[in-house]
Amino acid sequence: MNRFRVRLTLIIIGMIGLSVLTAGLFMAQTFRNNHLDALQDNMLREMKIMIAKMEWPTGNTQDVYTYFTETAKMYHDIAGVRVTFIRGDGTVLGDSGYDAQLMENHFNREEIREAREDGIGREIRRSDTTQVNSMYVAIPIDPGSPTSDYVRLAMSLQDVDESVGELWTVVLIGLVVLFILAALVSYRIARGLTRPLESITRVAQRIKNMDYQARVSVRKTDEIGELAHAINAMADSLQGQMRQLKQNETRLESVLDNMINGIVMIDREGTIVLLNRMAEEVLGFSARELVGRHYAEAKQQYELAQIIQEGLEEREHIREEITFYYPDERLLEIHLVPVFHTREEFGGVLLVLRDVTEIRRLERMRSEFVANVSHELKTPIAAVKGFAETLLGGAVNDPATANSFLQIIFDESERLNRLIGDILELSKVESRRVPLQLSPVEMSPFVARTMEFISSEATRKHISLEMSVEEGLYVEADEDRLSQILINLLANGVNYTPEGGKVSITVEPVHKSGVKDHENYDMIRIKIADTGIGIPKKDLPRIFERFYRVDKARSRSSGGTGLGLSIVKHLVELHKGTIVVDSSPGVGSTFTIELPVLHS
C-alpha cells in the first residue's frame, strides 16, 4: 500500500507540475508575442512618420546613397533602431549601421516579400550582418505600386529575450516552490485516500485467513465508505455461512461418529477421504492411518479390495457379506453405493459396513429355538396322542390300563404346561418386559425361606442342604425374581446330585476397594455348589443357551425343560449382575452370582 501511496503522490505532483509548466510556457509565449506586437506597432508608427517627412530621390547615384545613409543614421540616433532604405528591386539605398553599397540585395528577404504582398512584413532572425537576433519590420513607401521602395526598421530582441528569461526564472522558482507544496499536499491527500484502503486491505487479508470477525471502521460515506460497507457485509455473510457450515459439519460428524454402521468414502481415484469411528473399529485402523491413502494401501483382505475396485469400475450398487478375521472374526454386510456430484460427474463410492455377526447369530439361535421348541413339544404331544388313541381303541375298558395311560397323559400335559410357561417366561425376560420391583432384601432369612421350597425333594433323595450367610447382608433386588434365580439353581443342584450328596449356598460381601468392611461393601457374591454329576468342560460355554442339555435323556427324566439356566442368566443380567459356572464331571458344579448392592 505504501508503493501505491507513493505512486499516487507522484501522479498528483506530476499532474500539478505539468499543468504549471504548460501554463508557464503559454504565459511566456503570450508575453513574448504581446511584447513583439507592441514593438511592431511602435516601429510602424515611426516608419510612417519617416515616410511623411522624407523626400525620396530617384536613381542610384552616390548622392542618393549618401542622402539615405545620413537620413538612416539621423533616425537611428533619434529612435535608437537600425534604419534601412531599400529600393523596389531589393537594392539597399542606405543603412544606419553599415555601408549600403556593400550589402547584398534584399529583394528575397522574408520581411520585404511580406511587405510587397501584404503591406507589412515582419521577420525575426539572426542578422547576417550584425549577428544579433533581431526583429525586422518593413513597409512599402507606396503601398499601391509594385515597384515601391521600402523602409525597414530592425530592433535587437536581446532585451525581449532577457525579459522572457527573467519570466522563466520566476516561473521555475515558483514551480519548485509549488512542487514542494504540491508534494506535501499530495502526500496528505494520498495518505487520506490510501489509509482507509489500507484498513480495508488488512481486513480483507484477515478474512482471507478465515478471521470472519474482522470489520472495517467506516467513517465516510463516499465510494471508499461504500466499499467498506460492502466488505463488512461480505464478512457478515461469510461469518454466517461459515457458522452454518460448521454447524452442519458438527451435525454430520456427530451423525457419522454415532452411526452403528461403518462409513468409508472413497473418491474416484481410489483415495480414502472419510472414515467414521465405527469403520475404524470394524477395519482395525484409525482414520489418521487411512485417510488420504489409496484403498489398496490399507492392507485389507482381498475380497474387500476387489469389491471396491469393481464398484469404481462398474459404478453400480454392490451388496456382499464377507467374513473378516481382523481385528477379530466377524461377519460384515457390505453395501457399496456409487456417488455422483452431478448426473454425469462420478465422485467415487460410499462404502457402508454393517456388522451382522450378532444378527446372524440371533437368527441362527431363533432357528435353533424353533427347532428345539418343535422337538420338545413333539414328544409329549405324540405321547398324549398315542395313549389317547389307545384308550379310544378299547383300553379304556381295562381300569388298570386306563388309569396308567391317563396318568401318563396327565404327566405329559404337566410337562407341556411347564414348557410353555418357561417359554413365555423366557420371552418376557429376554424382551425386558419384566419390570423389577426393587426393594432391600436381607439375605439370611431370604435364603432360608428359599431353601424350604426344595427341602422336601432333598430329603426324599437324602441330599443334605447347607447354608452359609453372614448376618446383616442386604441387597437391592426384586425379591420374587431373586427367589426364582436361587430356586432354579438349587433345584438343578438337587436334581443332578446323586442320593447322599450335598448342595450348599454361600452368600458373602464383595469389597472392590480391597478393604474388608462389614458395613461398606459394593456387591454380594452368591455361590451355589453341589456334588452332582458335573458338566463336561466342552459344554460349559453353552450351558446357558436355551434348550441346551448336557445329557438330554437325564434332563427329560428329571422333568426339566432346558430353559431354566437361560432364564436365570437373563434375570441376573436384569439385576446388572454376572453369573459364571465352574464344574468338573463326577465332582460337582459351582454357580457364582455377583450382584450390585445398589442400583443407580
What would you note in describing this structure?
- There is one protein chain.
- About 1% of the residues have low confidence.
- The protein is rod-shaped and about 200 Å long.
- It has a five-stranded antiparallel sheet with strand order 2-1-5-4-3. Strands 7-6-10-9-8 form a five-stranded antiparallel sheet.
- The chain has 14 helices and 17 strands.
- The protein has four domains: 102 residues, Beta-Lactamase; 97 residues, Beta-Lactamase (2-Layer Sandwich), CATH 3.30.450.20; 71 residues, Orthogonal Bundle (Helix Hairpins); 159 residues, Histidine kinase-like ATPase, C-terminal domain (Heat Shock Protein 90).
- With 600 residues, it is of the alpha+beta class.
